[in-house]
Amino acid sequence: MACLLYGFLYLPIGVVVLHSFNAARRGGPWAGFTLEYYRTLLESPEKLSAVQNTLTLAIASTALSTLLGTMLGYGLSRHSLPGKRLFAWLLYLPVMIPDIVAAVAMLICFSAVRDRLGLLELGLPTMIIAHVTFQIPFVAIVIRSRLAGLDPAMEEAAHDLGADGWQAFRHVTLPLMAPGILAAAALSFTLSIDDFVVSFFTAGPGSTTLPILIYSSVKRGITPEINALSTLIVLASVAGTLLAVRFQRREPA
Fold it and tell me: Which domains are assigned to the chain?
């Protein structure tokens, strides 16, 4: 039963990866190993532009969401705030909202700002803002989970030895949080690389990403180049997920 379940989950992905190296076009029988379709990607300005946009979006949104999400997670874990339980519950709300609902809401918001203030034309800036918005809760949740496993006595010991709040945070708390921060960053990067719905609704001219490019290409038929693009996204997602799991499992020193 377990083998059947795993086969159901991963066989379609395996087929896509396999056909990205198949010399036969249009999903024909195996005709030999080839890297032609990956070379074709490197020679296509359209696809290279999509790769550049995808990486720019993922790196920028990961940096911002990791910073803001870490601050939010730390604040909710280490400080007594009015309405703290409510804020902690609201943290999970963006995670529970369907992507299509969040995407439409962001599109309406950006369109209103553009129409009334003349700002935020749809493009990479709006995509970065949208990605940061849905990535922050994931980062904050990971950080809160990391801090929940840390012994507060270590911070108290630092204060007893004469360290002020900033020194205790810098020399004790931050190094202990580092694996959680790295795990959250890897998770954010993976979420951004994978995302289609939010990107599709907030993209503008010249800001096509790999998932959007694949979607528009599939409407003209599935080609080996699409399989190659999908394989690259799968590899990036798997790498990011493995890094996130590895960092999250690190025990505090």
Answer: 45-248 (1.10.3720.10)
